[in-house]
């Protein structure tokens, strides 16, 4: 990929290294980081290095009457944002919409006035949600202007936000379709809740887990989001109990189970730490589950102490991590009495130093 903002934009910082070399470099970095663990060969899973992001956020830059999209500067360039001409990491639906949307907004004072940020979310079917974020008082009177935008961009649903307030003009979700091992799964994704940014890598992560986790019985899942992994994984297990802190994500996950006709999943909105206490408390919520297999996909902070102790009580663990530092810390506990059966690096974030990993740990008993 080439980009006129390489060297200035804080998003893609590995611009001096060809894409395939980036993968080798990241693999070597992981090998070095995890050298004290008995890990198998790291599988490197990658996809397109252009037009791969299904969601993105851009600040707005003004020069006279003109608006530009902007990104935060590279650390070396100091604080603040820089205007960008285009962004090639967003998927084609977002990429094609960006310039046309901005030139329409430019023509309308009410839409333009103190517009601070635009967020995009797209689906594989070309549906989009655009969120306009303002640094001023906005009221329902903006509806007329949004209606005009909507006439022009028929596949887009618009949301307007200003501090603490949100106006939804159509709907605040879209339906994503993923083909996993030849079967289509449908997912409702609600705006401003977590969704995997890289659609193709997401599909490959789910397929990797299904292929490598050769487990039977029931499954407990922490940090389940909208049921992204839960729904296809539920076909391998007898019963699944999946939890997540965000009630909106749980609402989407419950909807998604029905949409995909999965009847063996129970979703609960609670924090991982809260859920972890249920076992000690002999909670009826866990009655009837064999607590042998656990799947976790935590945020960058990894597991808190309580949740780590809980996860460590399972025989088999599937761990998806977006932060190798906290993964390493957690494996110091979790890999003590288990074998690391599979280790993958998924390149969710080409041109950045971020690394997503998948680890399957099985009991040595
Ligand atoms: C990396 S995302 C993974 C979501 C899901 N597995 C997926 O593939 O879309 C992490 C999820 O953990 C949730 N989360 C964050 N902190 C949490 C906590 N303390 N307890 C439970 N869930 C939490 C977030 O809302 C988010 O949905």
From TrEMBL:
GO terms (BP aspect): methylation; RNA modification; tRNA processing
PROSITE patterns named in the record: SAM_MT_RNA_M5U (PS51687), TRMA_1 (PS01230), TRMA_2 (PS01231)
GO molecular function, one term: rRNA binding
Pfam families per record: tRNA_U5-meth_tr
Amino-acid positions noted as binding S-adenosyl-L-methionine in the UniProt annotation, renumbered to this chain: 196, 223, 244, 297
Keywords of this entry: Methyltransferase, S-adenosyl-L-methionine, Transferase, tRNA processing
GO cellular component, one term: cytosol
SUPFAM superfamilies in the record: S-adenosyl-L-methionine-dependent methyltransferases (SSF53335)
Xref: Gene3D superfamilies: 2.40.50.1070, Vaccinia Virus protein VP39
Top-level taxon in the UniProt lineage: Bacteria
Entry-linked InterPro entries: MeTrfase_TrmA_AS, MeTrfase_TrmA_CS, SAM-dependent_MTases_sf, TrmA_MeTrfase, U5_MeTrfase_fam
EC numbers, comma separated: 2.1.1.35
EC class: transferase
Active site: 322
PANTHER family: TRNA/TMRNA (URACIL-C(5))-METHYLTRANSFERASE, TRNA_TMRNA (URACIL-C(5))-METHYLTRANSFERASE
The family this protein is said to belong to: Belongs to the class I-like SAM-binding methyltransferase superfamily. RNA M5U methyltransferase family.
NCBIfam families: trmA_only (TIGR02143)
The protein, known as: tRNA (Uracil-5-)-methyltransferase
